[in-house]
Each structure stands twice: as structure tokens, then as C-alpha cells.
Prior knowledge:
By secondary structure, the chain is α/β, with parallel strands linked by helices. Helices cover 43% and strands 15% of the residues. The radius of gyration is 18 Å and the shape is globular.
Amino acid sequence: MKFGICTSIANAAAVKAAGWDYVEENVQNLLQGTIPDSQWEGEHLSRQANAGDGAPILAACCLVPGNMKITGPDVDVEALRGYMGNVCARARKVGIQKLVFGSGAARNVPEGFDPARAKQQIIEFAFMSAEWAAKDGLLIVAEHLNRKECNILNTVAEAEEIVKAVGHPNFRNLVDCYHFWLEKESLADLKKRMPLIAHVHVSDLEGRRPPGETGTADFRPFFRVLKEGGYNGTISVESLGFDDIAGMGPRVLAFLKTQWSQA
């Protein structure tokens, strides 16, 4: 099991010093798929972080910028294709293994647009992206988002439908306990989805704070389903207010490890 933090590469040394295994960066910050290679500095920044004994960057979230639409009448397929080619090639260069496809603003279905057509557009984008990912040895994971953030793929089951429709080994599913709890999904349903789960996001439901910081969230039932499903992959904390990694990092990690061991 590897535990990581969704944060900037600038914090890679602090992440490692606090005992964590990896950083999950932001695609828009590090990989910058809309700019040419001559302007991209992500590989240099990654080498600097690793040379300074920083935690490796194993994952990256926020796959597609909000102004690059995946659904609706204004989709530019060729622009998306070129963008994903850049992102995947750069991800390989900096050692990233997983790319998280949340991108609520990019995939949000415009008002009045056919939801069935929007779903097909997402499937087409996901398959094209998986083909790029395969060339660079990456895995893309579909992130379900709660209805306040996006109006499509709001549950783990709905994301799994897309994964199955794509049918590509380099496109899998993700479970995020924050969205999972907000949508009041059941653990029994999650148990059915475990064979395709390849990445996990966690945070407290209260204020989306780091796990253990509010004293209210019990992750053990959620973790128990993961353990029973044989999950032994990456778990990233995607929270608000996780700024003091040196101070908060060790106790948040200790809390997660204890909850996992007790699950």
C-alpha cells in the first residue's frame, strides 16, 4: 500500500520527510498539455524535486482544463487528441503512473444537450486517451464526482459503466470517499465495483479536511471493503487545508495507517 498527498511538486521533499510515499500533482500545473514542448519546464522541476530527496510524483489529477470541452456541441476532438498526447508523453518523462480523469468542468453536460450523446463523447475521449496512455505505460482512472461539482458520472457505478464501455486495460476506475459519502453510495455497491478500482482518494466529509483532523470520520468500514476486495494500490489524500505538511503530515499518515490496520 502506498499513501500520497495531492499537492504541488514544490512540496515533494516535505511529503517524503513526513513519511509519505508519493505526490499526486495537478496535470495543469505540472504537465501543461496545452503548451509546446519548448515552453514546458515540468521535467526540469521533477528532476529538481527528486535531486532534493523529494517523494516521487506517481499520479496527477485534474486531467483536462475546464475550457477544453469533452461533451457538448463545441468538442474539438483533434485538440483533445493532441493535448492528451502531450500529457501522456510528459507524464512518462516525470515518472507518473496514473492520471485521474475527474475534470468536472470539461465533461459537464451543457444544458439541453442529449445526455446519451454526452456519455458517448466521454467514452470516445476515454478510449482515445487510453490508447495514448498505453503507448507511454500509464493508467487513466475515471473519477466519479458529486452532483454539486458535475452533472454526469456521479457515482462509482456510473463511472464503471464508462470503464466497461471503453473496455481498455489502460482505463480503470477510482473511488473517492468524499464524493462517495456525499452521494450516499452504499458499501455493498462498492464491493461489487472493486475488480476495476485502481486508485483511491480520501478526505474527511466535514469540510473536506484531511483524514483525522476533524475527529468525525471513520474510514474503517470504507477501508474494509477495499481490503476485502484485495486492494493494495495507491491512496491519495485530496483535501482542503493540508498546507502544513511538515506539521500535519505525520499525524494524518499515522491516522490513515491505523484506520487501515483496524479495518
